[in-house]
């Protein structure tokens, strides 16, 4: 032990010598946080937190941050100063502070000093309270996280004890169990998995739900027993904390100075979840804020709504106006003063008995005026906006339509200040998986040997899931939730809840390590929710009856089947068998069994060595066949099936004894019971019960038997990399072709008819995006032949099919027929939006295989361009396939997605789909959700160089423009003739599909503009294979360049960046963690909720807030101008004819609540109408309610009203003996009436709340002024309100003045509204009118409206974007395409739905394309795409010359050429 | 934002049994389905509002005009000699009397009020307005800071009352004589009861003392005043000091630069029981208040009052105009409506 210490010392000293000063300063510094980052500026050394390293540990690791996180902004102590500091960052607040200060200057003082402070204090207080509450919720969340529990190795107790997360520090050993969340970044030192692999789910980090493998540090993986921290004597040196998730560099230095490199494969990241691995042990290297997950959180993104920005600019106008008015006052005062040569009575000389000169007096007056007229800048506006937004958010959150029963979740508004932006969205950027779809892949249909099995029952089941089985899922969800909750609660008070802990330890002891909560709950779905892609809807497949029937034949046949019996079976039957074998085998699914220490089903592996020679293969084959015969499990299955349920229970009871846990006993029984009645329904279940027995029976001699180390299999779990694979395997299982186990060498499939088949796995040719397929090469145990199973996209697979070499003409015909029919089915599937896959197989003779193997071996061992050779090798293998069939998998769209998208589009919103998925899938889903319409022209942008990209986009643009202009002229001509609005032409609508690589080029500065031009002309854009970064860059691009309002919606962590960048981020409370939700401004549970959120609440919030803001401007201008007009009659001396208190309180109390109520509750059009007529959204989108003209009209009206309000009393009382404040009183009262009644005119709907508030305000005003007048004799020295109101109340003239003033002031506005309503009704007003109709009429009217709108909107669209055309049907679509692409020879692809294989025939292609391009290369590119052509015109782009060259040489390459062939040049 | 997964813990649904559903209340308020009155601008409501407003305004306007017409008012301005004298501020303490003759062509029936009018006197100047101490006028001697610079003399003697308003108090004396059959009868004038009752009885109080002069001991009159405050009305103890009506009225600063203040009321006794009969009258004015300094003018006004105030016809005219405008608009809208009814637009009813 002395050695390591010396070592550490040495390292430490070395470190000091290199970075001497910093370290020495850090060691005596108290500030850990900053010093640690300094010392670790390059490296960090992690020393285990153990007794014998204590000294070093204290020195090094203690300097690093611990795992406590704090995301709050304030603490109790610094709240007031810090909050004030923050608040005075607002210009408005500074302005008001300035006013307050100004009022303390005696020369310019206008009010009492205290009065001016009042509004500011009120505003600051309200905002401070709001900020405090927000911060408090963050604090609570932090506390919750910090107090989560985890198992940390304790030096004292020499074992793992529960610790709160916050107490974890660097160097601690942590032991995690399955489904636990990783508390800090740690290096994996031990995994219960024999291969030293740990699976983690990184959904919360990158949104990917598939499992990632992490590897135990080399050198530790061979350990059989769990690592003992006490014996760990190595040090870890790694890079200093950074936010790069994909990189981790470092090494472990053992005590004997051996170094072992560390990579990201060894790092478990904070926030991920351990899956399928019983126990892992790691040592913490980064903790708390230094973890990669935390460093990646760029902090909250403060957003300011568009409206608010606009308001700010208008406030600047108000400031200008104010300055103008003050200048008028200043100049006027100066002139007025200069008229007097002597000091008049009423002008008070200064202390020295002299008057200040007029110019200086004017200057002083300027500031006085600013104080006097300050209300013009509405301080209360900011507060009111905040309050209104809170109210709006409250109402949004309480909308019952956003409630999703299944998840018991409703909308969460996480950002309080951008609700009105929802009403102005122009672009929606949507994620696909989980956002548009449910992220549940479901096997839907298949076609085998040209025969379609449509799985009607399955379809019914899927439908019924919505209603009936949702309860089941609910219960599963609830369990999961309660489990979550439990762990949360446990963590919450840092003290373990005894029960659950006990249970946990019991489980731990027994070695079975399932989640306690789930086992306790009685459920027939013991396994839902916690493994990716395994919700019930995905796992259960109801077999097609027809197919099942055929299956039963197979079974009976195969009982007597000999080795060459396959040929006797009908062709179709072999197809079916092969099809399902392919489904079960051709994948990389990991089989696991829950509730069991060892997850991976392992079979005794036979040949670990790679097979290299034919001889070996032969040997192997012999061994294999022998084994199959000897270990045939058939008899035991038969035996056991008779006693199945009982035996299962008894088996379980054996298990139970081992566990010695009564709780589990009950659980087991309960778990067993439901299986019994279920068995007919779920055939595979009984199968599994049998399996239990088989396994049990062979338990003792398991080493030799097929299942090693197995224990009761309640259910097999499939962990797939992609959900499609899982779906296929589950489908196969439904037909009793159960994938039992998979090891690197062999696959075992339990086939009903044929028994358990163990395939020797020879090769896996993994999926890649170039080949778009994957293959497995296996040796068939029955026929002993080498068989290749391939599954892949139909676009590539169909070209790989070969004619059966040994087949007769008859079979050839048959094959062709199958191919045609399958293709038909595939097209049909695609039309239905299913994800299609082709399944094919190829039987190889041994000779063929050997030959290929040699090549492949060469490829594998070659050093130079190994990848390419491997690709080539794969392509060589995957030829002459026999088509078995096709599958259609449904990633079910969420409810109402197509409707929502259509409605949103009608609302004038452009929708982009940004997804990381493959192009085909993305396009399919785009069709399914009506993002793309069948008759849209789809441009696929796919090129590998920037230049080409530019050219292609230019071409498309040109084409579109030509097309539209041509159509336009035509339509104009037509329009002249017919002139009827009903000549509706199919608008030219285009969709753009672009992939990630191309996106990179396109996002380059030089191409951005043209790309945006192009996208503006397309009605939908689909970006596939886009990285999270690209997503956010795209959003930012559109947002900044097009100045458009953007909304990003997504559910996964990969959408976070785009959600944060967009003006409005919407997160979906989906299955992929909460990251998106946390980053979002609004979190909804279903995509369809977006419709109401935008169309209704967006519209409402926007119109309400704009109207309120405008009203506020009006109110303030109108009111302040009263004072201003008076200046003309008091020598511009800054006198206010209203009592100061009433003046200030007028805005703060008497007229503040009604506009707020108006802003929260006003409803111009009912929700129903807004939902039905999405076109209304355009009004708010174009900010019709708040155009600059509206603002100025409002101000003009305010001026007019203030003039009336001032001069009617003025002329009435002119020359009378009225005193100042008696004069001010009717003005003030009339102003109150005018302002409140103005609101009433503006109100679109008046509820009792409005009535109460308005009446209340008026009453309050009178009560206040009466009380004030009755009591205030001297409280308010300069003004003199005493008894004024009382006297006026008895004076008829007062009432007459108020009445007349109100009438005259409001008549024009009323008239304007009348004329607007009758003569030039806006769509909103028309819609408002619809509300009043009886339902039938309403329906009729809406229909009429829609018809009408189609015309209008199209015209409008045409005008605004100039892209769509209202061409007549005269131009055929083919023509339009041709005109779009006159000379393009680029890999521009035209997809056209409906199975049409469309070639973009280019005028000059044929002769030039020549024959250097082999036919096969042409065909392999894309089935339904344009012919790939050479082009001399683009010869300069030689970026992909290499690829193309190879293509032509090989003639078989399936590389879809994105570039251009240039060898001809 | 924060660590997301941990948030997922935080947001995980509550425990199933005890969990109240998060489903929002289906109440009218929360679902924004409150019954609402939606003001629809249909032709019926629009026209009725316009015509009703028009009719109402017209009728009120006519009433007002009629009543305003019954007001008799006479305004007199002369005394050029004295005003010239007062132009020079050195002559401020030279007494100047002038008399103005005028003729009432018809009787002024009812209560007749006598006002003095000032033109161009900016009583509403901000610093003038605040230059007073309400506390002092209540009899307390505190907080006279607003009075500056008319607070104290250089020797420290406080002014009573302080401030610019008080200092510049109107100090002409006006008497009215009726030339009845070549005999001159002084018209009896009431100098109390002209101010607001609340001012007189609540807002203005003399300092507490056994007599008035001792109450104001230690104070001095404002610089422009000719006599101290406790000698404002030597005849009537209850009209002296701060509670002098003339003073109270002056202290109620006027709203405009041209204004009138009530000076006296005609006591309806003997000849004047019904008001002022037609005939020749003379004002005897002791001219003290200089107006040329601020380029102003002085008037003496005799006027009667009706319920709608004085002789100002503006309100009535305004009502008539407003009513006419509303009615006219109503007709125009009717015309538009009739014209548009043929063209059936979407929702015209």
UniProtKB/TrEMBL annotation, chain B:
Keywords for this protein: Glycoprotein, Membrane, Transmembrane, Transmembrane helix
Gene Ontology biological process terms, A to Z: phospholipid translocation
Residues covered by region (Disordered): 1-24
Highest taxon of the lineage: Eukaryota
Short name of one Pfam family: CDC50
Primary localisation category: membrane
Segments crossing the lipid bilayer: 41-68, 314-338
Cellular component GO terms held in the UniProt record: endoplasmic reticulum; Golgi apparatus; plasma membrane
Subcellular location: Membrane
Family: Belongs to the CDC50/LEM3 family.
Name recorded for this polypeptide: Cell cycle control protein
Origin organism lineage: Eukaryota, Metazoa, Chordata, Craniata, Vertebrata
